[in-house]
Amino acid sequence: MKIDAIRKAKPVGGKAAWRGPDIAKSDDWVYHVTPGERAELLDALQHYLKSGVDDLQATQADFPLPNFGPKLQKLQRDTDGGRGILLMRGLPLGELSEPHIHRLYWGISLYLGVVMPQSGKAELIGDIRNRGLPGEQRGYTGGHAQKFHTDACDIVLLMCRMRAKEGGASRLASTVAIHDHMVETRPDLAEALYTPTATAWVSPDPVSGKTWFTVPFFGFRDDHFACRFSYNRTMKANSFPDTPKLTDKQIEAIDYAFETGNRPEFYLDMYFEPGDLQFVVNHQIIHGRTEIFDWPELERKRHVIRMWLATPTGRPLPYSWEDAYTSVEPASVRGGVPWWWFTERFGDYRARTAKALGMKA
Fold it and tell me: In order of start, what are the domains of the chain with their CATH numbers?
């Protein structure tokens, strides 16, 4: 494996180094879907439903978006490497049933990337709502606040079907801004986060039994910045008997980065409305959620559905990220719960969709 170049702490800057209160004053990161685009999406959905094709066999021809498809791809290109966030508002969910919303969502994904498994259960579309079930293992199935983290993919898409009664704001912060603040105030701590640390897998490898991988919080390759931030899973892995342990300096650095992101002058809170679609570039944004105060009935609870995407806009990642992502090359199929666990189920879909989008499978 190639080795990352040794780097001294210096700021990244640019449009990606935003702070919440500043961009809250603008709406250049919000795109309002036009009536014509909504009509095109509904026509594409009807075509898709009539075709009878299975999602994993579908192509763009099965969900034709001659005008909105290229617009989706341009918006994604502008977001990845720019601010790293986009809120698309006004998708035509309306009176669509939940299964038909899933089909619409899948059709949109055909223009944006390869959908990656989110769990050991091979979920391709995650169901985010408080079901109140005992023994839930993932934070998104409850109503409590979620700490800042990144997901294991190039871009995470969150589509809102139902908003909460109260609370449940999506909280975002730029890791470029956090990194640059650390460079200015504590460059020694910024550099401590360039060293790979152990992070717990979402689900243990069913073949090898391995429960962790190594990845740095901050990384660079060819001047492309990237961040993999998971406070809880890093601290969890630090308790495993077979992991390299965090140094005192690394723990101080992780705490400092986490505390910085949670300052009001850094984060942005946004509330979802039905028909919203949020794009988050994981390599430059951390996200979390405020506590939800919801309705008692399941059908009225806040409901967001999620996709993890490997995208044709994906940047080159540091070589030290290979353990976490399998591929660190740009525009490649990578991330998610490792693909080799599910190759038999999804291999054909992965190869076909990647080829259509000009990605490396």
Answer: 20-356 (3.60.130.10)
Q: Which stretches within 231-307 are classed as H helix? A: 231-238, 248-261
Nearest Cα to 112, choosing from 68, 81, 151, 150? 68
pLDDT attached to residue 7? 82
Amino acid at the residue 224: H
pLDDT of residue 134: 45
> Which letter does DSSP use for residue 17 in this model?
S
- DSSP assignment, residue 88? E
d(CA 208, CA 335): 18
> What local confidence, expressed as pLDDT, does residue 276 receive?
98
Residue 329's alpha-carbon distances to 162, 169, 230, 310, in angstroms, are 37, 34, 22, 11
Which segments of the chain have a pLDDT < 70? 1, 131-142, 339-341
User: Three-state SS for 85?
Assistant: strand
Q: What is the DSSP string of 111-167?
A: TT-EEE--STT--SSEEES----TT--SGGGSSS-EEEE--SSSEEEEEEEE--SEE
* pLDDT score recorded for residue 54: 95
Q: Which residue has the tokens 């969910």?
A: 93
Taking the CA atoms of 239, 242, 248 and 250 in sequence, report the sign of the dihedral they define.
negative
